[in-house]
UniProtKB/TrEMBL annotation:
Protein name, as recorded: Uncharacterized protein
UniProt keyword terms in alphabetical order: Metal-binding, Zinc, Zinc-finger
Location of the B box-type domain: 133-173
Domain of life: Eukaryota
Record flagged with keyword Nucleotide-binding: no
Pfam families referenced in this protein's UniProt entry, alphabetically: zf-B_box, zf-RING_UBOX
CDD domains recorded: Bbox2_TRIM16-like
Length: 200
């Protein structure tokens, strides 16, 4: 997944990259938590990898050099984007193709089809799939945040635009991005916080 170095930096108990790596007297490395849990649930105190048995439970010290190497490795490794699955699929959940702000659901290719065919659903606001759909909904009016208020530099829904932001200069979020080649940055995980455009 991460390349040839992964196995060297992988705990053989949890099969993930080390967290607080510790070394056994026989020279094998494990996550501190993994090894402690393993020994807590075992009758004998032995190395999970080579099975060498120790007369008494070793005092585990974090391998600082290995921890630093793991830290550098994690910074360089590309983080996987969280997968968004279809909310409608029942047995085998397929990856979502789009999320609908109106329905507040995400759909795979099959379940998205009505949104592309049915007249009423065609008007719904579709976007790239996200797990946190509630962050794209106005908390005040429970409506999709579709507009960008240039006066207040924040995303608003249609109801906000005729009430709280009446006579303000509002444009569709997409237009704001296209016109000034900006990227709207989500602050503190919610669109109802003030948003600032950042020049690319």
């Amino acid at each position: 997944m991460f390349g040839p170095l992964t196995e060297e930096l992988q705990c053989s108990i949890c099969l993930d990259v080390f967290t607080d790596p510790v070394s056994t007297p026989c020279g094998h490395n494990f996550c501190k938590t993994c090894l402690n849990e393993h020994w807590d649930n075992s009758q004998t105190c032995s190395c999970p990898y080579c099975k060498e048995t120790f007369k008494q439970r070793p005092d585990l010290k974090i391998n600082t050099t290995l921890r630093e190497i793991v830290g550098h490795y994690k910074k360089k490794s590309p983080e996987k984007k969280p997968e968004v699955v279809c909310d409608i699929c029942e047995e085998r959940k397929l990856n979502a193709l789009k999320s609908c702000l109106v329905c507040q659901s995400s759909y795979c290719e099959t379940h998205l089809e009505p949104h592309l065919r049915v007249a009423g659903l065609k008007k719904h606001k579709l976007m790239d799939p996200v797990n946190n759909l509630e962050d794209y909904i106005c908390q005040k009016h429970d409506s999709p945040l579709e507009l960008f208020c240039r006066d207040d530099q924040t995303c608003v829904c249609l109801i906000c635009s005729v009430k709280d932001h009446k006579n303000h200069n509002t444009v569709p979020i997409e237009e704001q991005s296209e016109e000034k080649k900006v990227e709207v940055i989500l602050l503190k995980g919610s669109w109802n916080q003030i948003l600032f455009p950042v020049v690319k």
